[in-house]
Amino acid sequence: MKSEVQKFVSEVRTLIDAAEGLQLRVDAAKPNTLVGYAAVFGSLSADLGGFKERIIPGAFKGSLSNGQDVRALVDHDPGKILGRTSNGTLRVSEDNIGLRVEIDTPDTTYGRDVLESVRRGDIRGMSFGFKVPQGGQRFLNESGLKVRELTNIDLREVTATSIPAYGDTSLFLRVDPEAIRQAAEEISAHGIANCRKKLLYHLASI
After folding, report:
1. pTM
2. According to the model, what pLDDT value does residue 36 have?
3. Three-state DSSP class for residue 100
């Protein structure tokens, strides 16, 4: 069971079916911080106008290493900026899952609105703005489905949105790491299949 739980935590990074009665608390040290994935590798997007899209692992590495000032926005609106990498209010990295983000939201009207919308579950996804460098894409035909694979992405912004192009993206309030540890112990003790209360909190703070 221990190895199963470790795999569940490290690879999926989402607690689904946590133990009954368990509550995952918002991190009191960072109550205005959002975490999530703006892109998930290997996941197909919605129809983008005659084709779907897939991101290949490593696609963001070049962009993240060149010092590009990436911004976090609301619905791609440059007038609603939640954070940016140049001042540390946005942290962006690539891991084995996808493009991981952590945003310290501002104490502004739209910043508070986004926090509340995420808390309620009205906003649970993300998207991103980008350009494709030369040679950074390829088109495939998969059983009649046209798929654009992105192998190199010039990342410009990530965005909180209720209508993400990629359904597997995520956005959550940062959870208290101690609560996550307790949740993992509950799953280890009782088993994933036997846990009943549904919780969908991101484990990016581990």
Report:
1. 0.74
2. 87
3. strand
